[in-house]
Write a structure and sequence with these properties.
Length: 102
């Protein structure tokens, strides 16, 4: 399955809905959107919604962690919500779910 990334802005929050597979082939597209969202003017919070994510491997997890670090470096926050299925398993197993969702 391909990846569909849909960002939307509401005040100082950017919400990024991610549908499909996040893997080696699609991670660069996700990272591009994450980086632009985190660095956008006037943004305090980036929310990444994984409700429709059907697959995620270590490349997807890495992009989310890098996004959270970039956000922290700029005094902003990145949060992951609605992780289910394999995305939830990957984030929990690697011990990063709590860091990305608090």
């Amino acid at each position: 399955m391909s990846l569909v990334i849909t960002p939307s802005t509401d005040g100082a929050t950017i919400r990024i809905d991610v549908a499909g597979d996040i893997d080696l082939a699609t991670e660069p597209a996700l990272w591009d959107v994450l980086e632009k969202a985190v660095l956008a003017e006037g943004i305090d919070l980036v929310v990444v919604d994984l409700a429709e994510t059907t697959f995620m491997d270590c490349y997807g997890m890495s992009a989310l962690i890098r996004g959270a670090r970039l956000a922290a470096d700029h005094g902003r926050r990145l949060r992951v919500v609605n992780a289910t299925g394999i995305a939830l398993i990957v984030l929990r197993t690697c011990g990063v779910l709590a860091i990305l969702s608090d």
